[in-house]
Each structure stands twice: as structure tokens, then as C-alpha cells.
Design a protein that fits this description.
By secondary structure, the chain is an all-alpha fold. The protein has one domain. It is built from three helices and no strands. It is rod-shaped and about 200 Å long.
Length: about 180
């Protein structure tokens, strides 16, 4: 049963003989009413504070939920960004490896082309040297024939010449050419 301060103040008791002092009872009821009123006001104040704090708690819970959602989204975005960066790095590495393999293959092809060109040039050099030797040999043979004829003509008494001083050194000519 709920008693208000006003009910305490207005409470009246039946009078009997040799009962309590009415002034003391009234004074006690007044002080009791004051105390109940103060407690009631304190209770109202506390209820108001509880309502305010409950509202704040609800707001904080909303903020906490928003923060949790934001944090979760940030983690998801971070994970997605990390995965995307990882994929991109992997793709770049594969692309770099492919380019490196292509460069190495081109270098091998160039090396083979250069080797083939060197072999061809050596073969051409050997062919040219062989042709030059053949030409020098044929020219030397012609000169030897002319020297022999000149020697025969000299012995036959015709025109004298310094032709017999010509000793042809075929190897010396070839060495000078090469």
C-alpha cells in the first residue's frame, strides 16, 4: 500500500483515555510526512536520472553498433584491398616473368643468329682465301712461265732483262694478303 505525505499529515487517530500525547504524535507524523516527501522527491529524481541514463545507454548502444558495423566494413574492405593487392602483385610477377622469358628467348635467338653469322663469315673468309690462293697460284704460274720464257730467250740471245732476278715466293704473297 502506498502512503503519500499528505495522507500521513491528515491521518487522525481515535482518542482514548490515557493514549499518546496528541502533539507528540502530530509532530512525529509531520516529521514522518516530511521524510516520506523527501524520499518521494529523491525517488522521482532518481527515476528521472535512470530514464536519462537509460536513454544515454540506448544512444551509446546505437553508437557501439554503428562503430562495430563500421569496423566490420573497414575490416572487410581492408581484406578485399589486401587480396586485390596480392592478386595484382601476383599478376605483375607473372607478367614480369613472362617478359623476362621473352627477353631471354630473344637473346638466345640473337646469340644463335650471331653464331650463324660468324660461321657464315668464317666460311666466306675461307672461300675468299681459297679463291685468292687460286688466283695467286695461277698468277705465280704465269709469272714463272714468263720468267722461264725470258730465260730461254736470253739464252737464245735476245734482249737481256733483269727478269731472272725475280724469285717468286708464293707463301710471302699469301701472308701479305691475309
Amino acid at each position: 500500500m502506498k502512503i503519500s505525505p499528505l495522507e500521513i499529515r491528515q491521518q487522525e487517530f481515535t482518542k482514548k483515555m490515557r493514549g499518546f500525547d496528541p502533539d507528540e504524535v502530530q509532530s512525529f507524523l509531520e516529521s514522518l510526512a516530511d521524510e516520506v516527501q523527501r524520499l518521494s522527491e529523491d525517488n522521482d529524481t532518481l527515476k528521472s536520472e535512470v530514464e536519462n541514463l537509460t536513454e544515454q545507454i540506448n544512444e551509446y548502444k546505437k553508437i557501439e553498433k554503428n562503430l562495430q558495423d563500421t569496423l566490420l566494413k573497414a575490416q572487410e574492405n581492408s581484406t578485399k584491398s589486401f587480396e586485390a593487392a596480392k592478386k595484382q602483385t601476383s599478376l605483375m610477377l607473372k607478367e614480369a616473368e613472362l617478359k623476362a622469358a621473352q627477353i631471354i628467348e630473344k637473346a638466345r635467338e640473337s646469340t644463335n643468329d650471331i653464331r650463324n653469322a660468324v660461321v657464315n663469315l668464317r666460311e666466306e673468309k675461307d672461300l675468299i682465301i681459297a679463291k685468292l690462293k687460286a688466283i695467286v697460284n695461277s698468277q705465280a704460274n704465269l709469272l714463272e712461265l714468263k720468267v722461264e720464257r725470258a730465260g730461254e730467250e736470253k739464252s737464245a740471245g735476245k734482249k737481256t732483262d733483269d727478269s731472272n732476278k725475280m724469285d717468286i715466293d708464293l707463301n710471302d704473297i699469301l701472308n701479305k694478303i691475309l
